[in-house]
Write a structure and sequence with these properties.
With 227 residues, the protein is mostly helical. It is built from twelve helices and no strands.
């Protein structure tokens, strides 16, 4: 599994190097080992199907292995069908499924007590996925509420300042709150990522102090405050 992960990294670098060229396949021993790894997955899954039969679908690990093998088969079909489908970007999407092979490493670690601490970390990570999902949902909801307020209140002020010559050479600055999507992107950049908050906020607050509650209030709002 670790060897396959190294090959995936090498294959990704090779595809980036040959971007737009006809020779987009990995070369030499790396290509051979990649095919061998996939063949091992197919043989292993086939043997498991023979042994477990219908019971194979009752395990999430088995379902994940089936998806990995099917996605790999689809990738081979897209390559064999010609370059037309390859240019559509479908192969790139299917290649991302290769990362699922690394998840199989967690299945192996379950059977080794020497990796007890690592196994516990993986279990804790899996148990907090649901919490992270709802935290992200709440984050987007709060940012969208502030985005709507910013579009209604802040955007007209920004357009006035832009017409007066502010932010020359920065097209993104004048469009930062032109729509709900742009406002969400701006809040994510400035509040969540902490990137260049004062570039837009300070000139607007100095010219229009009433807009301060948007720029100062949004970072202080839970769950944004926790970030």
């Amino acid at each position: 599994i670790l060897l396959n992960f190294v090959l995936i990294c090498m294959e990704t670098d090779d595809h980036a190097t040959h971007q737009g060229k006809s020779a987009s396949e990995p070369n030499g021993w790396a290509s051979i080992l990649t095919h061998v790894c996939y063949l091992i997955y197919v043989v292993e899954l086939g043997l498991r199907i023979i042994v477990e039969q219908r019971m194979i679908l009752k395990s999430r690990w088995n379902i994940m292995d089936i998806i990995i093998v099917v996605m790999g088969f689809i990738e081979y079909l897209l390559h064999w069908s010609g370059s037309g489908l390859t240019k559509l970007g479908l192969v790139r999407v299917v290649r991302l499924s290769h990362l699922g092979r690394l998840i199989r490493l967690a299945r192996v670690l379950r059977h080794y007590t020497v990796f007890k601490e690592l196994r516990r970390l993986i279990q804790m990570l899996g148990s907090c996925f649901k919490t992270l999902f709802w935290s992200f949902f709440l984050l987007v909801l709060v940012m969208t509420i502030w985005a709507v307020i910013a579009v209604e209140i802040v955007n007209p002020k920004i357009q006035e300042l832009a017409a007066a010559g502010y932010w020359e050479g920065c097209d993104r600055c004048t469009l930062s709150f032109s729509s709900t999507f742009d406002a969400n992107l701006t809040f994510f950049q400035t509040v969540v990522a902490g990137d260049r908050w004062g570039e837009i906020a300070v000139p607007v607050i100095v010219a229009y102090p009433e807009t301060a509650f948007v720029f100062i209030g949004s970072p202080l709002t839970p769950p944004l405050r926790g970030l």
